[in-house]
Amino acid sequence: MREVRARVTRPREDRLDVSYAIEGDLSGLRIPAPRPPRFAERLWQHSCCELFVARKGGPAYREFNFSPSGEWAAYAFTRYRERALLRDAKLDPGIAVHRSAQELRLDASVACERGKLALALSAVIEDADGRLSYWALRHAPGKPDFHHPDAFELELD
Fold first, then answer.
1. What is the number of other CB atoms lying within 10 angstroms of the CB of residue 100?
2. Could you tell me the domains of the chain?
3. Which tens digits make up the pLDDT trace of 109-140?
4. I need a surface site. Which of 14, 104, 134, 138 has the fewest CB within 10 A?
5. Contact 65/45 with Cβ under 8 angstroms?
């Protein structure tokens, strides 16, 4: 694998569109097979893309997991790693996946709060041997921890 890229746009004040591109020889990766779109737990244990969204300056945040399978998960956190599950069909991000021999692109759209936001973008990539690698705009010190406040690198107005 050569590169993981992510792009976020805010087409409306209450919506975020995110696009991830994983480039390189995809034959060396475990990419989940397509499935019907649905909520699924533990997506981060295999290849998946993640988006963390917080209101700027606050401890609460949401986590969205997007699998290349089309499955997804959404969680609410009151503060660092204090989680409550969000099971709401209205949160379905409508994932679209495009794949070629050298690129996997995953696009998703999620509802968000209005106002200034802090974002963390990350990906977990599983290789053919089951080893995981962790990609992020910014890693906090120590082992990979996408929830860490230092990971919220991107700001949107």
1. 9
2. 3-156 (2.60.40.1190)
3. 999 989 999 999 999 999 999 999 999 989 98
4. 14
5. no
Angle at 13 between CA 77 and CA 88, to 5 degrees: 45
User: Which pLDDT score, from 0 to 100, does residue 6 have?
Assistant: 96
Closest to 144 (Cα-Cα) out of 153, 152, 136: 136
Taking the model in full, what pTM does it have? 0.93
